[in-house]
Write a structure and sequence with these properties.
alpha+beta; four-stranded antiparallel β-sheet; 16 strands; globular
Length: 259
Amino acid sequence: MGKRKNLTSTLKKERRKKKKQSEQRKKLERKKQHILAVSPLEKCFFLCNYKGSVYRFFKEEEHADALARGDVYLSTLDICRAYEDAEQGDSQEAYETYLSGNLSGDGDDHEFVEKARRSGIGIGPGSRDIKIINCSNTVSLPDAYVLCTTTEFLPENLNEKFGKYCVEIKDPRKFFVAVSKKINSISAIREAAIREIIYADRNYTGMEQTPGPIGFVKPSTPYKKQKEFRFLWLMENMGQLNPPLLKCPEVSSLCRRIA
């Protein structure tokens, strides 16, 4: 009996361990659907496997020269939202909207409860004959620091709107880590991420997955030709952001003037 009890105890411990590991994996996967946390001084997480160069275009040559020597000027989501030019600005930057359509169901129907939750409506167990008609629920990121680049050196697509002076950033990951450390030395970062922009509708419905990580989805028209690669930093202090000019000479070896 003693051996059987010990064996049972061991099996239970193994099950608990596997359950905990499974929950941790699921939690990490859920996190990957959103902005990934970054500890700039320890470890960064990335939302893509992109390993090529990215390119930053400028209207002023002196601004291109500044980045090449490691002076990094950031923008913000609010600035991007305020641009009047349709190809540079996007009033819905870092927004996503869930559309419910017409729904009916009970509080014991898991799928109905989930659709209601996505619509911003809580349904308790045991509720009966609930109807939801054409609700929408929009979420957005608050203001955040951003640096927008492109994955392709295509002056013909970008010169007119973004300028003819260009800097190549040869290793976006190393650049991101170095700039994150510099930002964090000035003000604490809450979350940060980099990836290519996903060009898709920012609305979703039913049990569809979200269009992509919020802050990294834009409509195809008129933006797809820009082939944007974005760096984004959410700060702990979510008050009004004043984009800093970061003196970051350690990234100068990663930046090269090419036009």
